[in-house]
Amino acid sequence: MEDLKGKTAVITGSTSGIGLHFAQGLASKGVNVMLNGFGDADEIEKERAGIEEKFGVKAAYNGADMTKPAEIADLIKETKSTFGSLDILVNNAGIQKVSPIEEFPDDKWDAIIAINLSSSFHTIKHAVPIMKEQGSGRIINLASVHGLVASPFKSAYVAAKHGVIGLTKTVALEVAEHGITCNAICPGYVETPLVQNQIADTAKARGMTEEEVKKNVMLEAQPSKEFITYSQLNGLLFYLCSEAGSGANGASFNIDGGWVAK
After folding, report:
1. Which helix (DSSP H) or strand (DSSP E) does residue 262 occupy?
2. pLDDT average, residue stretch 31-41
3. Contact 32, 58 (CB under 8 A)
4. What SS3 class is residue 150?
5. Residue 57 reports pLDDT greater than 90
6. Number of H helices, E strands in the chain
7. In this structure, are strands 8-11 and 59-62 parallel, antiparallel, or unpaired?
8. CB-based contacts of 192: which residues, under 8 Å, 6+ apart?
9. What gap in Å lies between CA 95 and CA 188, rounded to an integer?
10. Is residue 1 very low, low, confident or very high in pLDDT (cuts 50, 70, 90)?
11. Measured between alpha carbons, how far is 142 from 58 in angstroms, rounded to an integer?
12. How many whole angstroms separate alpha carbon 151 and alpha carbon 149?
């Protein structure tokens, strides 16, 4: 992956969880990174400075709200002005709400569609002209296994992630002759801080141990009965960002322990 060194990436939703590990992983390959997301300002600065110190790259932070198109446009513009290029765009920001559709709050539907789907449209819209001018670029959208299959009580999330798959295919066709690729990563369950909180809450609500919740609730759909790891996701990300992955375009890569194979 030496061909990644010196490139620039913007990763939305990268102040924690999968996004932060994507940023750290790319930085480990010599990629300069623009962080984005919410959280405690001191903690975010600690992560930003830590990436620079540990990996010897440049790291910056922009707190653009993924529900606000103007702020998203500024995020892409600032990335280009700060680093001089924009080589990799990772659309990772996302939120979740679980509820029967007849009880699903309207504001939560709107927020999930905005953050999980529409924000990717806005980042791509502003990144593509930069990448076309460069004659190269990599766009990676985090779609989730729920971009390929559905689960009950997740209407907004599943709708948004299916939309991301369609967006990925369309963008891939539009940029294919410009040295740009657009692909989607579709993880199964990853033991992120958000999922860890869900495990604890579910164990308490159902009178189960956390291990029982992991195996019989969270991982019931994954034949491997194991969470997808950050390092596994990073391996796929590195491939898609590198020259080795340049032939992949408009594809959806499920990394789900066998979930979709059933």
Report:
1. none
2. 98
3. yes
4. coil
5. yes
6. 9, 7
7. unpaired
8. 16, 17, 18
9. 15
10. low
11. 24
12. 7
Q: How many CB atoms lie within 10 A of CB 26?
A: 28
Distance CA 248, CA 183 (A): 7
Between CA 114 and CA 122 the distance in angstroms is 10
Backbone angles phi, psi at 14, to 5 degrees: -110, 25
Supply 182's token pair: 């657009």
**Percent of all residues in the chain with a pLDDT value above 90, rounded to a whole number:** 86
- Mean pLDDT, the chain, whole residue set: 95
Contact (Cβ atoms closer than 8 angstroms) between residue 178 and residue 193:
no
The backbone region for 52, taken as left when phi is positive above 0, alpha when psi lies in -120 to 50, beta otherwise, is: alpha
Q: What is the pLDDT of residue 197?
A: 79
DSSP 250: S
pTM of this structure? 0.95
Q: Which residues of 228-247 are buried (b: 16+ CB within 10 A; e: fewer)?
A: bebeebbebbbebbbeebee
Answer yes or no: are the C-beta atoms of 142 and 187 closer than 8 Å: yes
Asked which of 77-86, 95-104, 174-183 is least confident by mean pLDDT, the reply is: 95-104
Span 172-198, average pLDDT:
93
Structure tokens at 112: 């999930």
pLDDT confidence of residue 79:
98
Beta-strand relationship, 88-91 and 32-36: unpaired
Alpha carbons 139 and 176: distance in angstroms, whole number: 12
Nearest to 63 by CA among 52, 74, 47: 74
Token output for 26: 């790319």
Catalytic residues: 157
State the average pLDDT over residues 194-209: 83
Alpha-carbon distance values, 53 to 27, 58, 186, 234 (Å): 11, 9, 31, 20
